[in-house]
Amino acid sequence: MEDEVMTATNQLQAVIDRIQPLQDEVVRQADDHLNQLTKPPGSLGKLEDIARQLAGITGEVMPVFEKKAVIVMAGDHGVCEEGISAFPAEVTPQMVLNFLAGGAAVNVLARHAGADVVCIDMGVNADLEHPALLSRKVRKGTRNMAKEAALTPEETLQAVLAGVEVVDDLVAQGYRLFATGEMGIGNTTSSAAILCALTGLDAGVAVGRGTGIDDAKWLHKMNVVNRVLDLHGLRGASGEKSGMGSEVSDETGGKLGGGARDEKSGEMSGGMSDETGEKLGDEVNVEKSGEMSGRALEVLEKAGGLEIAGLVGVILGAAQHRCPVVIDGFISSAAALVASRLAPLSASYMLASHLSQEQGHAKLLEAIGLSAMLHMDMRLGEGSGAVLAFPMIEAAGKIMKEMATFESAGVSRE
Ligand SMILES: Cc1cc2ncn([C@H]3O[C@H](COP(=O)(O)O)[C@@H](O)[C@H]3O)c2cc1C
Ligand SMILES: O=C(O)c1cccnc1
After folding, report:
1. Mind listing the domains of the chain with CATH numbers?
2. Is ligand 1 within 6 A of the CB of residue 76?
3. Does 381 contact ligand 1 (Cβ within 6 A)?
4. Which of 17, 177, 306, 359 could pair with 123 as two cysteines, CB 3.0-4.6 Å apart?
5. How far is the CA of 75 from the centre of ligand 1 (A)?
6. 374 - beta bridge partners?
7. For ligand 1, is residue 304 a contact (CB within 6 Å)?
8. pLDDT at 115 over 50
9. Are 326 and 386 in contact (CB under 8 A)?
């Protein structure tokens, strides 16, 4: 078992080590091109930030994304037995079948965006079979994190590496633009615990109403998250700078397997933040990823979900392949936070699609250094907000490719 964990750890470290900074030179070329286009400089606002970020990610000033996919990972949560959701756990497999039949919100919005839905069983507590379902089932649901660790180290690594492989396969099929999506009743509780554990935030700030729980259940859900943090010693020891001004101690961050780590990892290069929009023109990249943070993996083991762990792998895999990855709502962002702590450079490959109504989502994005494109008051998950943002991302690419320059259109300036 030890050997298996070591091998999987090394595999994950290799993925992290392959993640490169954005290509500064191409970002500069994109910036130059944007300034030749028939518009006052900067007048396309965040579309220009996206265009620069896409250039730095892909190495192309005019990227085109012919094949795009939303990767919807599903898993069940043992913590449901604490009564923290407005819906029963059976909804997870039922919704997976709905995704496969094409009837869920994410299917509709993906069709609208011309994207494919790739549905993956990471750990649903049912025997599901369908020709279009990819099974990467690690186990039938997590353990109840309020009583014991949700996952073992082996299970956690297996799920993360499965996510990496899913992206490897899709890239081999020609996909170049990804979105994260998930299904798992109870997973806003898991995500809130991850947010608290990695930033030091209080449960009162991080815990939201998920599928729509009433006040009494909401208070209970906060208590459950507090119990999880106490049981697993996850309180206030992020080992990382949160980027939100919350003071956190720094003793537990470390290379997996022991050694001390000295890595400034709180400053993210997430391309969509207001500051980074400016930064993209000159200083896009932060430091190269260092050794992976054992702390982030530990949090995933203690409080994670199999679909969340899988999405961590999807995000790292996309970054490894220099593909943009569009992050959906609260749960996807919890996975993105873990990914950014494992590999700080991965944040440069993320685009935050929308600001979920789920309490805590703004703090979660802030901790990664991302700012959301859309404010649609959505709180669904599944990847629904992320696919809704696909057309905007493609629009940024089209601006680069199709817009006339001052010279070509004979438009005067100065
Ligand atoms: C019918 C239905 C469809 C969904 N699609 C996504 N979620 C969302 O709700 C769940 C998280 O909320 P909580 O932590 O409160 O259980 C996740 O499955 C998430 O994807 C859904 C929830 C329901 C009920
Ligand atoms: O923001 C989300 O992803 C979300 C919020 C509530 C319930 N399910 C998902």
Report:
1. 65-237+292-390 (3.40.50.10210)
2. no
3. yes
4. 306
5. 11
6. 354
7. no
8. yes
9. yes
Q: How far is CA 235 from the centre of its chain?
A: 22
C-beta separation of 379 from 356 below 8 A: yes
pLDDT computed for residue 64 by the predictor: 94
ipTM: 0.99
> For residue 288, what pLDDT is reported?
42
Report d(CA 76, CA 222) in Å as an integer.
Answer: 20
Q: Which of 213, 331, 384, when mutated, tests ligand 2's pocket best, judged by the most ligand atoms within 8 Å of its CB?
A: 331
Nearest CA to ligand 2 atom 7: 210
What are the E-state strand segments in 291-412?
325-327, 350-352
How does the average pLDDT of the chain come out, rounded?
89
Question: Ligand 1, atom 9: nearest CA belongs to which residue?
Answer: 211
Could you give the C-alpha distances from 65 to 113, 159, 227, 309, 398, in angstroms and in order?
12, 27, 45, 26, 10
Helices (H), 200-232: 203-206, 215-231
Nearest to 305 by CA among 192, 221, 229: 192
Interval between CA 188 and ligand 2 midpoint (Å): 7
Is the Cβ atom of 188 under 6 angstroms away from ligand 2? yes
172-195 pLDDT, tens digit each: 999 999 999 999 999 999 999 999
Q: Are 307 and 74 in contact (CB under 8 A)?
A: yes
Question: Which ligand neighbours the alpha carbon of 72 most closely?
Answer: 1
Tens of pLDDT, residue by residue over 288-297, are 444 667 899 9
pLDDT tier, 256 (very low <50, low <70, confident <90, very high otherwise): very low
As a whole number of angstroms, the distance between CA 232 and CA 369 comes to 27
Taking the CA of 73 as reference, the closest ligand is 1
What's the pLDDT score for residue 293? 78
pLDDT at 292: 67
Token reading at 70: 């939303």
Question: Residue 165 burial (CB < 10 Å; 0-12/13-18/19+)?
Answer: middle
Coil, helix or strand for 348?
helix
- Distance in Å, CA 330 to ligand 2 centroid: 5
Given a contact cutoff of 8 angstroms between Cβ atoms, the answer to whether 198 and 300 are in contact is: no
Q: Which residues are CB-contacts of 127 (< 8 A; sequence separation ≥ 6)?
A: none
